[in-house]
Write a structure and sequence with these properties.
250 residues; 14% strand; globular; 7-stranded mixed sheet; Rossmann fold; alpha/beta
Length: 250
């Protein structure tokens, strides 16, 4: 307790935030994905994504992990923000990244990258467009996006298309990493269908909001299929109640 008190007193005495700290531990609850200005992440945040990359690589004991589904248990946990920032980190290192908006319920990637939503994943899987037609370049080197396209009245049927498997194989030839943004697991079946086709799944959990029972239930729904591999979970929007550096003094 004395050590904790001393750390808190030191934090209050200095009464200032160290460089990059606010950005790294942003607790905003906005559902709009966060796009860093000029595609540049704060160094503290970027380091976490580097760590995430190597943890994913090290988990691929049975082969190279290339296709990854990012999902969450509920709406608004920051899934799109996490996948965008991870994609930017990879692309900035020279990795060729293909970002796919498979959230046909509430697509966001076209807005974030100022791209036309039409001519995307839906049209590809329905056979109306080829893969080369739907891949859209962004202003960041090494990062391309396949937007959601214009979904039909029942988006779940899109992923039942026979062309999904062949499209995935073609995507693997186009990029080092193929990252899928998807709708939440609990209310929709889309993520569970897609997850069976992926090398792995990353779950995004919002700190201090998502109940562990809800997150566990979503995980159980995903892991109910033998083929699905959970690569890990990202605790998003973690709020530091004292400056982050002060935790190191405890």
């Amino acid at each position: 307790m004395a050590k904790t008190f001393d750390a808190l007193m030191k934090a209050e005495k200095e009464n200032k935030t160290r460089p990059g700290e606010t950005s790294a531990f942003d607790s905003t609850s906005s559902h709009r994905p966060y796009m860093p200005s000029g595609f540049k992440l704060p160094s503290q945040v970027e380091e976490e994504y580097h760590r995430m990359k190597y943890q994913i690589i090290s988990s691929g004991s049975e082969g190279r992990i290339k296709t990854i589904l990012f999902s969450s248990s509920s709406e608004g946990e920051g899934n799109s923000t996490v996948i965008i920032n991870f994609a930017i980190t990879l692309a900035s290192e020279g990795e060729n990244v293909l970002l796919v908006d498979a959230n046909l319920r509430s697509p966001a990637l076209h807005d974030m990258f100022s791209l036309d939503k039409k001519g995307g994943l839906t049209e590809l899987l329905m056979g109306d467009s080829s893969l080369n037609d739907v891949i859209k370049k962004t202003t960041l080197d090494n990062l391309s996006v396949i937007t959601s396209g214009i979904p039909n009245s029942n988006p779940s049927t899109t992923f039942a298309s026979r062309s999904l498997d062949s499209s995935l194989e073609q995507m693997k030839l186009q990029a080092d990493w193929v990252l899928f943004d998807s709708p939440p697991i609990t209310p929709y079946n889309d993520s569970r269908v897609l997850a069976t086709k992926m090398d792995g799944v990353v779950m995004v959990v919002q700190a201090e909001k998502t109940r562990w029972e809800v997150a566990q239930s979503a995980k159980d729904k995903i892991t109910g299929y033998e083929k699905i591999k959970i690569l890990g979970a990202v605790l998003n929007r973690r709020q530091m109640h004292i400056p982050a550096w002060a935790y190191k003094l405890l």
